[in-house]
Amino acid sequence: MKPGVPGLAALLEEATRFASAAAGKVMADPRGQEAVARAVGLAQKSLQRVEALQAEVMKAAGIPGRQDYQELARSLARLKRKARELTQKLEVRRRAGAGAEGESGGGESVDSD
Hints:
Layout: H1 8-28, H2 30-61, H3 66-104
C-alpha cells in the first residue's frame, strides 16, 4: 500500500469481503450456477474461435503456426538421429579400414551402399 493513503487497506479488505459474499450468494443459487456455467462455456467457445481466426491470419500471412513448428522439431530430431547413426557407421568403417590398411599396406577402398 502507498504511504499517506489512510484507510486504503481497510477499503480493499471490505471490497474483498463484499465480492466474496456476492460470489457465494451467486454460487448458492442454481440460477447463478447456471449463469456462471454459461459464461464459462461462452468464454471457452470464444477462445476457440479466436485461436482459429489467429491460425487463419497467420496462415494467410505465411507465418508458421505451433503445429508447423512441432512438425519441424520432429523432423529435425529424426534427421539428427539419422546423422548420428550414419556418423557411427562411418566411424566403424574408418576404424576397420585403418586396421586393414595397416595389415595389407594397401590403398583406400571406397564402398557404396
